[in-house]
Structures are given as C-alpha cells and as structure tokens.
## 1
Amino acid sequence: MNSAALTQPFFSVLILHWKGTALLQRCLKALASQTFSDFEVILVDNGSKDFPSSLPEYIQQPVKVFNLPENLGFAEGNNFAAKHASGKYL
C-alpha cells in the first residue's frame, strides 16, 4: 500500500459559498462537531463580495480555501472544488 492511500481521506465535503457567510459559519461548526473525522473540507468562494477575510476565527478544522475572482455558477464552482478534492468519495 502506498503512502498516498494511507493519508487519503474517506470523503471530501465540498462547500460552494456565495453571499452566505452566516450559513457558512454554522456549516463549518457543524462539520467540526462530527464524531466521524475521516474527511476533508474544500471551501470555494464563488466570487461573492461578502467572503470573510478572517475565516480562521470560526474554522475549527483544516479547510482548503479557494477564492474565485468571479461567480462560475453552481456546476462549474463545484467542479472546481472536486478537482481539488482528494477523498475517496465526494
């Protein structure tokens, strides 16, 4: 078994954010409270103007964060997130 297989998370949680900072905070807190922890979080801001500059104050687990310069839409934004995921499942 190679070392990449040992570190690959079981699944990747993809979060596409657009103008929903209050909901994002609740979502990340809910993920942090899970007892199952074999997952990674991919957070893509889809060109919103309200994306918080101080995310670390409410991120409680490692999160891969990407800021897109413009809104790519739902499908393309999620495809972008999926390309950066390393989990066995999305």
Note: The chain has three helices and three strands.
## 2
Amino acid sequence: MHGLIPYHTHALHLQLGGVDVELLAIQNLDQAIDQLCELIESRGGTEDPLAPDLCPYFGLLWPAGQALARYVEGLGPELKDKSVLEIGCGLALPSLVAARLGARVLATDFHPDVEQ
C-alpha cells in the first residue's frame, strides 16, 4: 500500500510557551479507517485495515504527545543545539516544539501514508 489516502483532516492551532504550532490532523479515526477499508477493498481486499502498520493512528494528536510536548517546552533553552530523536512521532508535536526551541531533530514514523 503506497501513496497517501486523502484523509479528512482539520487544522489544530496550539501555543506552547510562546511556540506557535499548526498541525493538520485526521478529523475522525473511525472515518479514516473506513476510507482505508474502501481502498483495501478496491485493491482486492488482501490487507487487514486494522493491522498496526496500516491503521492511521499517526494522524491524531494523542494526549501523550501533548504531555511530552509540554515537557519539552519546559526544557526551554536547555534544548538549544541538542540532538533529539522522536521514534513513532505521528504528528510530531514534541519534535516541532524541540526544533522551534533550537534543537536538531530527527522525527520518524513507519506508516506508509506518512510523508517522507
């Protein structure tokens, strides 16, 4: 499965400690899974739409990501010129905050619909 599914999204505007962040998030996970199921069916239905490597969990702003971003925000100047690695970043809010605070960031996610 390659290529981006045109998930229905909405813009999120956040401010963390003076750092403005705008994210585009999946509007509704159930609807996104339905879109994925339709695509899989149109391709012969051989893939499991709820398989962890296909389900579009990456496109939601999870409470844990928000909490981690607030923690990163609290580090403030300590992050300047530091290296940060976020694995399974999804929307990468903690990475975006770290980068805006001067860190060198590598944010990764394995989902095939995540833009590289």
Note: Residues 40 and 47 are 6 Å apart (CA to CA).
## 3
Amino acid sequence: TARLAMDQPLVSLRCHAGMSDELWDATLGLIEQGMGFPALFNDPVVMEAKERVGIAPEDAANYGIVGCVEMTVPGAEWAQTEAVRLNWAKVLELMLNGGVCTRTGRQTPLASATPLAWLTTFDEFCAAYGEVFARAVDVLARGTIIRDRGFGEVYAYPFLSSTMTGPLTAGTDVTSGGARYNALTMNSCGMADVADSLMAIKTCVYDEASVSLAELAAGVRTDFAEASGLQSKLASAGARFGNDDAAADGILVDLVGRLHEQLARYETPRGGVWQMGLYTVDAHSHLGKLTGALPSGRRAGVSLANGCSPCQGADAHGPTAVVRSLTALDHTQLGNGFVGDLKFTPELLASAGGKRALRGLIETYFSLGGMEIQFNVVDRETLLAARAEPEA
C-alpha cells in the first residue's frame, strides 16, 4: 500500500499485545504516509464484542473486516452491517422544534411529549430527549425488521449464499436466515454533536440562566439568522466531548447504554440479535447537510462529527484526552464496529520520538478498552493546495 499509494484495497490490522517491533515499525511507517491506513483493531475487545452478540469464541477469533470497520465472521455471518443509521443530532433538532424538520418543514412524530417550557431542570430536559431518542430507535428498528422480513422474497443473494457455510446445507438463502450467524444492525451518527449540544444547554439555560430554552430553540430553528450573538455564545459554552470531561463523556455513555439495552428487546426475522456500531463512513457529511442548526453553535448543513470522534475543533486538550473520552464508552457493546479518527501533522511522525509517542498512544488506548483507531496525517497547506488544484 505504501508503494502503490492507492486507497484500495483498504488495509486493516488486527492488533494484540504480542506484536513485534518490526510489525509496529511497518505500521507506523504506513501511517506516516498520510493515507489513513491501516485501521487498527484491538483483538481482545473485538472478540468480546462479537461474543456478546452470540458468536462462538472460535469464530470470534477468526473475525475479518467488512467494508470499513464492521467486524464479521467470514463465510458464516450475515448481519446487514449497513442496515440503518440513527442520526442523534437530527433527533435533537426535531425535539426542539415540535417534531418539525427545520430543513424541509415536514412534521414528524418525533416531538417531545413534554412542552419545552415545562422542562425546568437539565435532568428533565435529558429525560425528554431520551424519550424522543427511544421513539426514533423504535421507528427505525421496526421499519428495518419489516424490510428484513421481505428481503429474501424480493432480493435474494444466491451467489453470496453459495460462498458461505450454512445456506447450501439448509437450502436457505442468507437473506432468509441460511447463514450460521444472523443479526440486524443499527449504526449511529452525530454522537459528539449531541453531547456538545446538551452541555451547551446545561451551561446557558440551566446553570447560568443566560438564555431561555424558548430563545435557544428559536435561534436553532432559524439557523441563528437574527441571533449571531447567541450562536457565538453557544459555540463557546460548556465542556465538549473529547476533553476527558466526565459530564460530556457521560452523556454518550448514557445514550449508548440506552441504545444497547433497547435494541436487545427487539427480535429479528432471521433469528439473530441486534448489534450496533458507532461509526459514520461518510454519513457525517451527507446527514449533516440534512440536519439543522444545533445548540452546540453548529450551523445548519455543516458536517457532523466524524465517526465517534470529537466535533471539529472541540478537542482542546490533546490526543490523550481524546483517548480517555473515547474509552469512557464500553466498546464491547459495539458488535458492528467503532471509529476513533485522530488527525496529526506530518511533523509528528517525521522523528523516531514521534513514532514512539504514537505507538504509546495506541497501546494505551487499547489497554483502556478501545476497539478501533485510525489516523489522518496531513498538513493544512497540502489540503489547501489540493482544493485549489484537485487535478494535481
């Protein structure tokens, strides 16, 4: 990959405590190239996560990667790894606007049962958001179950089935439950955006009482068209996810736990279980375009946070704080994968000391229970030049 300098095929590396210095040197050398490869996976955490969704230990130990980061048992598991994605930030936008989408004006059923004016404490606000969040999960899960129930009748996969153990013996296509392991998957987007938004609400509305919830909702509804001062205030208010702050990190921990618990209550047509993933591929960009302004001060249409990483520019205390925030979550709940995406300038990896520091960061992250991590190594000047002359 370093020689070819091409982004296909994707390169992933299964990591464990016994990796040799030679392998580490090769890994860090490829990261230094700035191609975003390899994506690094922590074997013990991945295998435990797969076992939690019903995979036998011997099969979990044989996991491979589908697409970007979805860990799957080769030839034995069909889990619709991109079945559906929940946009946490959109749920918050709808809640603050009576269920009406600020981008299209359409009414949805995702409105708070409790009027905003009645939410007099931050705990009450979080509880109200949690109820709308649970309703959104229910809508997506039930719709996906209906789709999965008819998949085998209208869109069978005979060639894929012929490459897997189970379907030939059972005489059943993978879309109808012929695989050894069956699951349905719900992924997420906008996680850090919600944490940052709730922290801004906590600070401005409830702690300082410097803005009312109605004023905040009106500003968000209009993309701060006549409230630039409010937008600036919100953008700098409250702790942000990615800075090793217990309150901001705790919001994600709570909502991920709720999502994991709720999905466990649904059945699947093919006899498996639900699993979830915290990664976005490119959804943070196109779902960001469809999401209105947020209480974090983010403007309408702007990209949401990449994967489960902090929002753009929100991490102010360095990569070790980011790693601490990411590992506040229980990654063994994530049977379909996780993305922690960090960015460094090329200068860091230009020296042996910088490479040692990055290896130490990765090993620490894995020792704290991190599942996956990857790196972009590029400088601002290169990106600006690429934008000016894309053909070069």
Note: The first helix runs from residue 21 to 32.
